[in-house]
Amino acid sequence: MINYLLMADKRQRRRHRRKRRRKPRGRKAKRALMDPSINGGTDIISTMPDEILHHILSFLPINLVIRTSFFSRRWRHVWCETPCLNFDCLKATPQDIMQTLKSYRATKIMSFHLTIPPHVPEPQIDEWMEFAVSRNVEKLSLFFHPSRKTYRFPDSFYRSSSLEQLSLNLYTIPGCTVSWKSLRILTLWSYRLHDDEFMANIFSGSPLLETLKLVGCPVERLDLSKSPSLRRLEIHPLYRRGRGPAEIVTPQIHYLRLTFSVEKPPTLVRVSSLAEANLGISMVSSGFRKDDVLQTMVLKMLAKLQNVERLTLRTTFLGILSVAELRGVAFPTLKVKTLTGETMLVKSVVPGIARLLRNSPGLKKLIAQGTYSGNVEDMDMDRYLDSQGLHPDKCWGSKYEVLPTTDELNRMLKSCCNDAASKVVASFMEMVLRNGKTLETLVLGFKDIYDRGGPMWFKELLQIPPTLCNNNNVSIVLRRYFT
To answer: Which stretches are tagged as biased composition: Basic residues (predicted)?
Structure first.
């Protein structure tokens, strides 16, 4: 028994010696960075200029930034001058924030992010706003709890000449004139912003505004003609049935990203300067009950985009176009050179894509990006076709029968049916090559949702293009990327 214990002890000592000899990967690099006995008695990170250390700290929330003061004497006051402050009041108390701001020594703030819960007194918020404005903040992000609907910003906030980028949810209309002379990017979240005059106040007081993003702002008429520097516009509903502007006047906009609900689709006015557009519909299950209206509206919207060269359409938009194509509705001719479809490769969107290919005589590039979001319910579409006296089976016909419904594709992906999924991809490629007579490049992007089969399945996909009838010598690119 004693011999056995001695042998076991020897084995244990040998294992311990081997562990000590076996250094983990990256250990030398870590020692070189952090061991004071190397590089002249200090670590490499601490020798870096304050500008670099501040840049590193800008990626951290303020509670972690402050902890760096315990690293060494060199780090004790570095955080006090970091140009980026990121406060989450849901985790930090108002007292913590005030103490932090009292210790802050930088004369200028590049970025200030604040999430404000309901229990903070308004005078306290006023102090934080005054502090940010007094330090000439350039990038400001403010998010209030929905219960703070009565808070009014101090007038100095609306006169900040240093602001270049502003993001906030706004519930009250200011009583003063807006003067954001340096503002270039503005993001507004609000479902109570009905005041068209307030938007005009913003535009007149922001002469350099280039990018505007509105989320859930139900202004009746969004007239951007008085903001000549504006080039990018994004509009999204706050929720599926949320309202957006009823009329959008954008004479000088170059880029438009628009998501609208079926309840009240917008009218585009004077959009001849648009070069790029991204369109999607936030649709509830009852949306196809109004499909006649939707088809007319969607096709009118396409006709307005006469000068757009880069067009992105999302799943529901493509589904509406597919219904219009199956019903034989006329499509406008487009000048699009690059067309992107954010959709799954399913039956409900293919007729619309095929018609767009035929009605875009200058099209050079098609990009199909696989996504789960916002897919059309096939049963809703079939019910609508049936209500119009069109037999769904005949509508889909032999041209589209190879392609699966959304449910069929979901089952296919979950069960890792690589052969069946490869046939879907091949069928989609064949459809594109048949209809895209001027096409030069086809790009298919596969996110991890499509890549359940792993690298081997992707290698199988790479074997498909050489087997296709490709008389126009279209370059086919397959991309595999992860979300």
So the answer is: 11-31
Q: b/e per residue, 367-394, with b = 16+ CB within 10 A?
A: bbbbbeebbbbbebbbebbeeeebeeee
Domain limits, the chain? 319-483
Q: What is the pTM of this model?
A: 0.81
- For residue 114, which phi and psi values (nearest 5 degrees)? -140, 125
Lookup: tokens for 58: 């800008």
pLDDT tens-digit series, residues 397-446 = 667 777 887 777 777 777 767 788 888 888 999 999 999 999 999 999 88
Mean pLDDT along residues 160-177: 86
Residue 299: partners with Cβ closer than 8 Å, 6 or more residues away: 321, 324, 329, 330, 331, 332
Total H helices, total E strands in the chain: 15, 17
Residue with tokens 């001719």: 333
Task: Select the highest-mean-pLDDT range: 288-297, 342-351, 369-378, 384-393.
Answer: 342-351
Measuring CA to CA, which residue among 161, 120, 165, 159 is closest to residue 140? Answer: 165
Task: Give the Cα separation of 329 and 299 in Å (integer).
Answer: 9
Report yes or no: 189 and 170 within 8 Å, Cβ to Cβ. Answer: yes
